[in-house]
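Data card: per-record layout.
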Amino acid sequence: MANEKKPRRRKKLRQEWNPHWTLKTVYTLGGTALSLLKIALGAALTVVLILLVCGVVFVGTLGDYLQNDILTEASDWSIDDYDLEKTSFLYYVDSGGNIQQLQQIYTTTDRQIATLDEIPQDLINATVAIEDKRFYEHQGVDWITTVKACMNMFFGGDSQFGGSTITQQLVKNTTDEKSITVQRKVMEIFRAQLLEKEYDKDIIMKEYLNRIYLGKGCYGVKSAAAAYFGKELQSLTVAECASLISITNNPSLFNPYSTSVYMYKGEMRNGQQRNRYRQESVLSEMLNQGYLTEEEYVTAFNQVLVFKDGIDEADRWATCDHCGYGGTVATFTKQGDLYFCPRCGSQTSVSQNASQHVYSWFVDTVILDVATDMALQDGFQWDDMDQASKNYYLEKIQKGGYHIYTTLDMDVQNQVDAIYTNLNNIPTTKSAQQLQSGIVVINNATGDIVALAGGVGEKTDFFAYNKATQAKLQTGSVQKPLSVYAPAFEKGGLSPATVIPDLPLTYDGGAWPKNDSRVYNYSRTIFQGIVSSINAVSANTLSRIGADTGFSFAKYNFQQNYLVDSYVSSNGTPMSDIAIAPLALGALTIGSTVREVTAAYATFANNGVIRTARTYTKVYDSDGKIVLTPDLLEYMCRLNKETGEFVKKITKFYFDFHWEWEHIIGCVINDPLAVAYFINPELCKGFDSYVQIETEGISLGQSVVDSMNFYRKAPNARVLTEVDVYGFFQMFLSRILDQEPEKLDILQDLIRGDLK
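The structure for this 756-residue chain is written out next.
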């Protein structure tokens, strides 16, 4: 047994506890974990550093962007850079001497500018109460409502809740930037803050109320007050103010003229009912914020609003956005609040594209006259302009907020309309074709056109072809007194009793002209020739005085500018009105209008004094500055165009200066007065006195008149204190215009300011 081998004992690894091995294992694992921790911390630190660097870069980039892009662009912006479309007005004087509104003129925007004095405090209070209750506290941005609006946007709150202040809304309405972007909102905030630094709250409120859209083509509260209530803005009640400002939140929803009925706040409501719901909210806010007492609130709440008949869309002009079809809104297909073009079937925004009203013949003519004269002021002749250039001036009137005072006599115009709109008063041809006609009624003494019609029947088109002012026709025998008999009496030494051969002239180898009677009586007096309109007498009279004399007299004494000395027809044929046929028989090269001939003939009834036919007397812009007026300068231009235009140019600076700084229309012309005094001392009154020029001190350069004889020095100057204004201008104008003093016919009226 001793020799038996002991069984081999296997070594059991890691089955017995070994302190040294355990510590080693822990150490190893701890080192690994520490290494991993170091790596993690290093990575985290790296990330933090990267984020920090990126943050710094982002902030720097953002700051640079805000500074160089947003802030720079915002700083370059000004509310004054945006011209508002403003409604223009035409006026006339009624039989009682009162100024009445004749017509509103606008394109797509009916905007009447209201001054601060015209805006009721109740309307301002209503606006603040419902739109921006902290308006008078913030500096352009209400950060409380802005944060609330952001929270609503991100956390699903009331989607109707907005954070824009009145100032921000003014910025948006002015720029018309409606894109929903962060960049636009940031730009709006910067601009609002800059706006508050530049203008006070009252100005911002005024501008806001003049810019907001209130439905039915009305921009601004003044236009809306007239459209919805038929009242002046300052006459609105508290209830009407609340109703009006309710519309701006959503003009299509709260427009009281909307007939669309649909579910709103749990009930089926039309426009007036929806407006009433919103109005109650406005009144409630005004009460809660202390703008109304309880009694005032109850009174306003219980007031039954009486709306004007409204804007009849059926009478308004619209144009399709897609195919350009134009017609009254009534011609468009309406489904609910949507409009569809009758030509292409496309949906279009005609309700926002109104305004080409069919104005009267007279209104059309006034607009064209003012546009023509504005172009002339800028150095352009209307007949030489292309249509795009003409449209510029026409739109300028429609959008410029002008106040135009016309020469219309409504009583006379009504009589003209009664005749011309009734087709039974105008005959037809044998083939039943309606004859056309135009008429101009003029005040002979002033040249004022008091009534006109450009065609027969009802006027249906905007700026229709006017047969009284635009149609150039042959004048026929009407021409004879203008270019034959008047110059014969004035320049030719003839009289009505002068005997003239009633015989044809020899023309192209034949006898010409023929009398209508086909009979020649060998001799007639000029008087007989005029009464019977005898062609041969007219032709022989012109032959005696010369065609040149007749042409010049008619063109310059009767202002027949349509007469041409040379003209080349479309086929290359040279033509001229300096000949017997056009001057003695009225076979004009181009022709004349009813208006031109009427003005020329008014001269006979005005003792030989020509008047330019006019449809307006003066034009003011929206700021009350006179733009056009037939004043002394215009009078000078009428008498002598070249000299008048020269005087206009050299006095323009002084006119502008006196208007801007003194609000005076005119300029001082001391030097011509001094010259006139030496010519005729009777023009002025004054006294002799010692006068000296200060050479030092704060009065350096000023003239000191010793009227009280303080210096006890002998008089060295004549000081003029009174001027015969009419006498001066009579002398001044007659000499520089080469006119006889007694023929300055309306000068006294212009001096007195009686021409209105």
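Known properties of this structure: The first helix runs from residue 19 to 75. The mean pLDDT is 82.

See the next section for split statistics.
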